[in-house]
Task: inverse folding
């Protein structure tokens, strides 16, 4: 198969093939106007490193469909699969982790122009509010990436300067008949570093879903973060 000219049917077949690989629960193949693969997004269960998962995807596509794709174009998100599945019709309840005063969503706005994309996010924690903004000159960028960056800047307004939040990536992936926003955040403290993954179902407001996914990651370690004694609300 000419990997530079995939049809929509080829793309669906490739996604279905990748999802047959053990440990992979979701796959989305993106192509440009000519049908060339630009990105492959994969969600996998813990057990293999992302690099090994990417190599498996690369080998499978080549062996089964003669599609050549550089493993560096394959983005892999590894999620914890230790929890047993929830029976249909039941809702699984999760305890609040480590700290009760979590970051909460207030508002999000996204604007696009010929100058790029700008996102503004407002969050609250206890009685305090903080604002974060982010901008990219790339008008073709995914808006939810800019939203996630703005979310982390708002969170950082609450944190002591010794803690840094770094966005590693945001993906919108299909899963179980729905779309899920997945965000990876690296938290760098004075004596520790931790990589976190958060997710949220995609709603009509994709920006809001990106905020929820980012907060889902950060709120996992809220009890380990060092906070400022006060937050100054400011426009960036």
Result:
């Amino acid at each position: 198969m000419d990997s530079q000219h995939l049809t929509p049917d080829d793309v669906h077949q490739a996604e279905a093939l990748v999802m047959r690989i053990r440990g992979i629960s979701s796959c989305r193949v993106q192509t440009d106007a000519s049908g060339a693969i630009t990105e492959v997004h994969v969600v996998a269960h813990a057990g293999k490193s992302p690099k090994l998962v990417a190599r498996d995807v690369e080998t499978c596509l080549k062996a089964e469909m003669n599609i050549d794709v550089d493993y560096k174009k394959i983005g892999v998100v590894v999620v914890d699969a230790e929890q047993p599945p929830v029976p249909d019709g039941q809702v699984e309840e999760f305890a609040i982790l480590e700290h009760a005063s979590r970051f909460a969503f207030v508002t999000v706005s996204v604007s696009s122009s010929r100058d790029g994309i700008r996102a503004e996010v407002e969050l609250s924690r206890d009685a305090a509010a903080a604002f974060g903004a982010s901008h990219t000159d790339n008008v073709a960028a995914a808006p939810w990436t800019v939203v996630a960056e703005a979310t982390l800047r708002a969170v950082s307004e609450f944190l002591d300067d010794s803690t840094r939040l770094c966005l590693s990536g945001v993906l919108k992936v299909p899963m179980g008949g729905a779309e899920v926003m997945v965000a990876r955040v690296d938290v760098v403290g004075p004596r520790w570093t931790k990589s976190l993954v958060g997710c949220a179902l995609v709603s009509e407001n994709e920006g809001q879903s990106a905020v929820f996914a980012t907060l889902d990651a950060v709120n996992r370690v809220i009890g380990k973060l060092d906070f400022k004694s006060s937050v100054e609300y400011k426009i960036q």
In short: Residues 6 and 45 are 28 Å apart (CA to CA). The two ends are 50 Å apart (CA to CA). The longest strand covers residues 164-175.
